[in-house]
Amino acid sequence: MVNKRMSLLVAYFVFMSVLGSVVTILPESSRATIRYVGGSNPGNYTTIQDAINDSAPGDIVYVYNGTYNEHVVVDLPMSLIGEDRDTTIIDGSGSGDVVNVTANWVNISWFTVKNSGPDGGDSGIELYQVQNCHISNNTAISDTWGIFLDSSANNTVLDNSASYNRGGITLFSSSDNSIFGNTLYPGNTDGIFLYDSENNTISNNTSTDNGFGFYLWFARDNTMVGNDVHLNTGTGILMFGSNGNLAYHNNLVNNAQQAYDDGANLWDNGYPSGGNYWDNYTGLDLLSGPNQDQPGSDVIGDTPFVIDSDSQDRYPHMFPFGMGAPKPPTMLLATLGGAGFQNVTLAWSPSGDDGTGNKSVVGYQIYRNVSYDIEGLGYTFHTFLVNGTSEFVDVLAGEGNPDNYFYRVCALDVKNKSTCAEDQAAKFTRSLSAGQNLVSIPLAPSNESIGAVLQTVSFDRVWFFDSVNQQWRSFDKSKPYFGDLNSVNRTIGFWINVTGSSNLTIAGMVPSRTSVHLDTGWNLVGFPSFNASFTATNLKSSTGSSRIEGFDSLSSPYYLRLLGDLETFEAGYGYWIWVDSETTWVVKSS
Fold first, then answer.
1. What is the pLDDT of residues 288-311, one digit of tens each?
2. pLDDT for 67-89, tens place per residue?
3. Alpha-carbon gap, residue 464 to 523, rounded angstroms
4. d(CA 20, CA 24)
5. pTM
6. CATH of 330-423 given 1.20.120.1760, 3.30.70.2190, 2.60.40.10, 3.90.79.10
7. 388 Cβ contact list (under 8 Å, min separation 6)
8. Domain spans of the chain, in order of start
9. Measured between alpha carbons, how far is 203 from 504 in angstroms, rounded to an integer?
């Protein structure tokens, strides 16, 4: 395969030797003129090249969205900026270079460059004999060479993407460039290709689903660090006829051939920095130290990863690099289920690191507590579920269990790091005596219908005062159509006539904050919070309320009493609030 590739490349470079196009970055003048291309202004240019031709050093050409079928030459220091990289397109129509830069200090950003010519030297963006250029946030599609640096130095190629090119990013006789944070995916023959180039830094790039991930041909003294090289059908990192290159802290995963080296290159950065992550490494990590002969794990394999008879990674890492804490799961809902609604079921969307990439999430930790804390402090570990799981049934935690429960779901990765879902779920229970009760629901259930919210309560009638329309609304089981109150939510308080002692037990999400609208006059509201120190004084100061009344089971016939300023609100209870003018009460969860 290597000999065949060499013959093809020799042919390629015959064409390249006669090339002459480049891209560069420039320092912007404080008096730079901005020239606009496209858009609706009648004074704007219709072609990019005309705007460049009228520019002076340091000027900016800003290109509105659209497709521009032209070949652009940038021959003076300036900035060429597109409105949006996906919809600001320069199309070479299958011939020549799309953008050719021959001046230093050129900045090119936010374009799609596509359809260069098929010849060996045709490129999407080419930098020829230039320095200090900045090529960022561009997309190169279906070009011979996506982004091509020829005999150029001290340039930065940053956060670009390239797909379906012969070479995604190519360096030819170029030195001291920084190739950082680019995505080479999919369908490039070579993700990143270096020929006769030295002292370049290739870092934090992703080369996936290409022929070769990184191809170094007679390139020397280059550093490749922090790159992800995945699923390439040829070799992940190939070094041919080159010496003095250094590759470490790269992730090599599921490449047809992980690496090839016929020169004198280094595949690790010494101890304890170490080498690369190889997903087919089968060694153990029981020892530590420069000679891996000391007791104790150090996240470095005890034996080298062998590339060939004279090339090896002496300190292969056991886990992929760039793994911070895993992406969190997303809590979706909590419901009651089982016989008599005795169980609590939690459901969540799995972490984005579950089953993708390096499959870093190994499972989910469920934490539970009987009181609420917004950060989950003091919660007790309850159970562990393997990755791929998105549901948990907490048996006998629902109706019939007098405790409230608050749940956190956290993703755990292979490095024992965890990230918890931002939201918490909960089950709440309040005991109700027969007769009239003034209640509310402090959670956000997935189903707010009367039947679902009050499924654990024996009752015959529910009624609520609609302060907007100044009228009572009710749900009455004795009426054929039950009435005009079909659902309840956490912002309202409501009266319920309980026909037999029972529990109001619900499951749902804990709201981080709730806005409760208060109309002028009396409002019947809920308290959607578990803040046990929130007082009547707190409410009055935030809403201007002058009177607050709460439930009193002994105060027949109205079952109400005036709240003192230092009395606290309780989750699950309803309250009458008087305000002199319309306002909004923002209730925080704690």
1. 999 999 999 898 999 999 999 999
2. 999 999 999 999 999 999 999 99
3. 10
4. 13
5. 0.61
6. 2.60.40.10
7. 350, 354, 355
8. 330-423, 429-590
9. 58
